[in-house]
Amino acid sequence: RFDRFFVSPLCTPTRASLMTGRYALRTKAAIVTRGLEALRSDEVTIAEVLKPAGYATGCFGKWHLGEHYPNHPNGQGFDEFFGFPHGHWENYFDPVLERNGQMNATKGFISDVLTDHAIGFIESHRQQPFFCYLPYNAPHTPLQVPDRYFDKYMARGLDPRAAAIYGMIENIDENVGRLLAKLDELKLADRTVVMFLSDNGPEGPEGSRYNAGMRGMKGTVHEGGMRVPMFVRWPGRFRPALVKQIASH
């Protein structure tokens, strides 16, 4: 667990750095709109590095680094893309999502659907090296979540906005648990590196939701906009440890 792990204050620059290992402004992916969210097509992504080495490569969720080929995931090294290439999605229930350029109807809540497809990808490629990138869009707005999560947090006295956000976060926890359980079931856990992090601090006016007492929110360069959870799991190699040094994406 990384105690002081920092990313960019907005999602696109963070994603650009994760994909390339480079300072986001060098990749042209500087902000989240107006064409400045597209990763320059000649940037070399981690998928483009791993694919020639025999890895199956899949991206499942929110890309937000360019909607059109060659900036699209399929043009940046991913064999399989399922999700949406832009930064915002309006309906989290039974979403119609893109799969390698074709729109597909789905059933269920979006984070569950994305996890299902990521797990299917892992099952299909369990006999070879694989790189699975699962960028959830929740808990981003719009604040939509199944009633069983929402009602739970409303009953605890939270306001509707916070109840929806906490519900989406609990749903992510459950889906990450499903993915880790699948790695255990397939006996892949000891040779699979799993990295979990957020792309920026919480959205909303400062003080509008819990942020561990840190100053600032998403969109600010204060600690509350850039310091995020970061976990790395590799049971075959890493022992449990707390990394206190400052680190970044």
Largest sheet: 5 strands, mixed
Helix/sheet category: alpha/beta
Along the chain, the helix and strand elements come as: EHHEEEEHEHHEHEEE
User: Gyration radius, to the nearest Å?
Assistant: 18 Å
Q: Helical proportion?
A: 25-40%
Distance between the termini: 14 Å
Strand content: 15-25%
Q: Count of DSSP helices? A: 6
How many strand units? Answer: 10
Q: How would you describe the shape?
A: globular
The low-confidence parts are none
Folded structure, characterized:
The protein is an alpha/beta fold and 249 residues long. It contains six helices and ten strands; from the N terminus they run βααββββαβααβαβββ. The chain has a five-stranded mixed sheet, covered by helices on one side. Strands 8-1-10 form a three-stranded mixed sheet. Strands 7-9 form a two-stranded antiparallel ribbon. β4 and β5 form a beta hairpin. α3 (110-124) packs parallel to α5 (160-185) and α4 packs across α5. The longest helix is centred in the last third of the chain and has 26 residues, at 160-185. The mean pLDDT is 96.
Q: What descriptors fit this protein?
A:
single chain, alpha/beta, 249 residues, 6 helices, three-stranded mixed β-sheet
Question: How is the secondary structure organized here?
Answer:
Blueprint (H helix, E strand, L loop, with lengths): L4 E2 L4 H10 L25 H5 L5 E7 L17 E5 L11 E4 L2 E4 L4 H15 L5 E4 L13 H8 L5 H26 L8 E4 L25 H4 E2 L1 E4 L13 E2 L1
Parallel strand pairs: 1-10, 2-3, 2-6
Antiparallel strand pairs: 1-8, 3-4, 4-5, 7-9
Concise overview:
With 249 residues, this protein is an alpha/beta fold.
